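Title: Prediction job returns without error message
Component: structure pipeline
Severity: low
Priority: P3
Assignee: unassigned

Description:
Job completed but the reporter wants confirmation the result is attached to the right record. Sequence as submitted:
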Amino acid sequence: MDRASETCSMHCLSEALCSFRCCLDEDIESFLNDKAMRYVDRNWCAVYLIMDEERFLAGKVEIEAYFTLSHKALVPTNASKTRQREAAGWKDPGVIHFVLIGQLGKYMDGQRSAGLSAGKILNYAFEVIRASSSLIPCRCALVECGESAKVHNLYLDYGFSFFQNDGEHHQFIKRV
């Protein structure tokens, strides 16, 4: 790719990131609008964009949804011994390592919503997690969220199980 094409591609990507909307969660929107590129540049996470293939092939970059993946090591402070063994594979681990699904969002503004369910977005995330686990093994994926019962049920319905509340987040895990 020549320098002009690369500049144009970065401009198109930047515009797509800035035009992403999620009217239900300001943090989901502002992450992609303002922080995603910095996080990727600093190797804090990988950001995966889900786009409509037909529109993309027609030259239109519109983000339908996204998710982020990184790693997280945590000391289980409030998890039961059973949950710790499930996550780590042995009794009384000092630290447990996870693949963290840090952000998960889909396009939603007042007029239009992406036709993807949260389950479909999680399917994409687990495709990447399973592929990477064949190279660098991981036992469990972790999600963290606030107090929303709706979000908790979404993760439970997808097969996650409650791990612990660390005082700041409710943490749910799923075997890979």
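Comment from assignee: result matches the submitted record. Strands lie at 46-51, 63-74, 96-106, 140-145, 161-165, 170-175.
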